[in-house]
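Recall that a protein's primary structure is simply its ordered list of amino acids. Everything else, from secondary elements to tertiary packing, is in principle encoded there. The following example makes that idea concrete.
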Amino acid sequence: MTIDELQILRQAILNEQEGYDFYSLAAAQTDLEEAREAFGQLAAEELKHIEWLRDLYGKIKANDPESFDLSKVEQPPAPGLYDWQNIGRESGSLAVSVFGIGINMEKAAIDFYSRAAEKTQLPAARELYKILIRWENQHLEQFQQDYDTLREEWWEKQGFTPS
């Protein structure tokens, strides 16, 4: 394992921490219980990813030779599927904003891990980055669907849709 790979893992942990902080803030800012719970679930998922990455980082830093054999590492929890039916229906602008920012965060993470996968010389590191890209893609797809739906609803409420 190289110093570059450890730096990438540290950045991955920071990326997940930023996501956790962002979704926690969104949960605290909404008055809707459904939205608070959903954003809280997203924050909790980011926290699981932080824990998984920290554990992996610790094993690698301790020079545990099996730690980077991903076939022997328990896979991270898959992103949950959330029921967003009631999110933002009353205060759509917050939900639209949160999902819009979330989309940009996921795209930035995908780009980061894609560049890391291209640069690394270690097959195991490349496989790790592919796992991280899958995480972020799953979030991105869900966020994009929810964003599109909420945006259309918000536009309609604002009178921006064609008659």
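The longest helix spans residues 123-158. The chain has a mean pLDDT of 79.
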